[in-house]
Amino acid sequence: MSFGTVAIIGLGLQGGSIGLAVQEHLPGTQTTGYDLSPAHRARAAERALVHRVCETPAEAVENADLVIFCVPPGVMGLAAEQVRDALPARALVSDVGSSKQAISKALGEALPDHMVIPAHPVAGTENSGPDAGFAHLFRNRWCIVTPAARTDLVKLSELVGFWEALGANVEIMTPEHHDLVLAVTSHVPHLIAYTIVGTASDLEDVTQGEVIKYSAGGFRDFTRIAASDPTMWRDVFLSNKEAVLTMLQRFTEDLTALQRAIRVGDGQALFDQFTRTRAIRRSIIEEGQDDSRPDFGRGDHEAGVDAAE
Amino acid sequence: MSFGTVAIIGLGLQGGSIGLAVQEHLPGTQTTGYDLSPAHRARAAERALVHRVCETPAEAVENADLVIFCVPPGVMGLAAEQVRDALPARALVSDVGSSKQAISKALGEALPDHMVIPAHPVAGTENSGPDAGFAHLFRNRWCIVTPAARTDLVKLSELVGFWEALGANVEIMTPEHHDLVLAVTSHVPHLIAYTIVGTASDLEDVTQGEVIKYSAGGFRDFTRIAASDPTMWRDVFLSNKEAVLTMLQRFTEDLTALQRAIRVGDGQALFDQFTRTRAIRRSIIEEGQDDSRPDFGRGDHEAGVDAAE
């Protein structure tokens, strides 16, 4: 393992999970960490998310071979500026942000003398903060690494090895392509989920109590996604504006077509659309990217709870 | 228990689950069943979804005290016509359809001399067919019963008791209100999920393989919902057209507002919207309508699989 000390800036879901995963999978590696919130630092220390929780970002990075910024996309540049003077010249700079073009630019500008290789582990839950992380978050998930054209290949392979050690599969692509792919597999789905949950909250003729009671009809799945961290998601949409707007336009056209099919009673168009979406689900399960149990295994869990009663 | 014999027409997810639940919770009750598909009848018999799988709908209902139609909304009337001559006068007629105004009308017209009390258990998974049912599907879920104005209150209380015996909580409302509530908690979410999965399949600059690989960013949740039975969902949208179009209009307005916020860079509007949607999630979990484990407990399950390896 090439990184003797890994510094983690931001000890939420991603940062905390990296800290725990490094301690589990790379026992020779030292981990340091910093979080802007004193309460989060205290909790991170209690949970031992990293070996040493530091009181300043400078202290956290002073001996780092790799520093990973795990802060919301909008403050990546600011967080990087705060470590500039303390960060060893040898240190590789990376991150876990959900958009890559804007973050690559921000990190590169803040740390012009360091090698920056951005990355994005496509893994998470709806939870956030220092209690949210767990060591196997990245297992069998994909981590997308988006090197610039003039990237040091040795550093690149070290970063790839690091994520593989944490259990992830690594894919390399350009920041531009990353932002387009994630717009459709993550950003637009989140925006839609936030929207429908908001729509349901605002109705006059259906009460919030009814929305909650009858949420098992499908709505509850959207509420899980819409419980994700608001700050991070605000920044994702602001930092990947162009790709998100492009994909939203496509989505809206497709929704309008289905809406028209409902209005004119075109059952065949609805049936055809509803049939072809099943194949993608099958592939996702076959490739180990989701649980094959019906209803995400909710029934199994409930059965388990009952059995234990 | 007031129903000596319960006949189930349609032995898919709902019908099969009712058959299994009755056998578990109401041991004194006889169950008969029929499915249009010979292969499904054979499989239903193998799984013993009901005590007796019959070769015709008439045979299935000939001694019924309660007949429950568990077929797609669009063929409820047709299925009811097929049992008219064989159904005892005393038999109560009900169903499990996801829209209620259209189905109430269809059942009432097909069986004008019988008491009809429509119902809708708000419970399900993405699976369908005779292998999909399980006995505890209805446990701690809501079943909405939508009696007409001139309903026999004794029959109504028997039907309520039946669903409560199967583990459900029962709520009574008008068919009109049901259709509005379900449009927002179930129908529009399904339409949106079908749409985004279709949009993702049609892109030129993002491959289907990429969509599958990086689906853990949120998209995979939508693919589960979009794997639901196409025939049933076609019929739901055609039979609840007005409420679905009304709710879609509201959703589209809200989505357009967020789209504009992204375009003009209004981070505060995004943050405010993303913050207020968390409360609904908390209430859904508090009221036992969803699993509180992060990411629907996918991580726990994966950990379990690994532990068993």
Automatic annotation (TrEMBL), chains A, B:
Protein name: prephenate dehydrogenase
Keyword Amino-acid biosynthesis on entry: yes
Gene3D superfamilies in the record: 6-phosphogluconate dehydrogenase C-terminal like domain (1.10.3660.10), NAD(P)-binding Rossmann-like Domain (3.40.50.720)
Enzyme class: oxidoreductase
EC number(s) recorded for this UniProt protein: 1.3.1.12
Catalytic activity: prephenate + NAD(+) = 3-(4-hydroxyphenyl)pyruvate + CO2 + NADH
GO MF annotation list: NAD+ binding; prephenate dehydrogenase (NAD+) activity; prephenate dehydrogenase (NADP+) activity
GO BP field: tyrosine biosynthetic process
Family designation: Belongs to the prephenate/arogenate dehydrogenase family.
Record InterPro entries: 6-PGluconate_DH-like_C_sf (IPR008927), NAD(P)-bd_dom_sf (IPR036291), PDH_C (IPR046825), PDH_N (IPR046826), Preph/Arog_dehydrog (IPR050812), Prephen_DH (IPR003099)
Transmembrane segments: none
Domain of life: Bacteria
Pathway: Amino-acid biosynthesis; L-tyrosine biosynthesis; (4-hydroxyphenyl)pyruvate from prephenate (NAD(+) route): step 1/1
UniProt keyword annotations, A-Z: Amino-acid biosynthesis, Aromatic amino acid biosynthesis, NAD, Oxidoreductase, Tyrosine biosynthesis
NCBIfam families reported in the protein's UniProt record: PRK07502.1
Biased composition (Basic and acidic residues): 290-309
Domain Prephenate/arogenate dehydrogenase: 4-292
Alphabetical list of PANTHER family matching this protein: PREPHENATE DEHYDROGENASE, PREPHENATE DEHYDROGENASE [NADP(+)]
Location of the region described as Disordered in the Swiss-Prot/TrEMBL record: 285-309
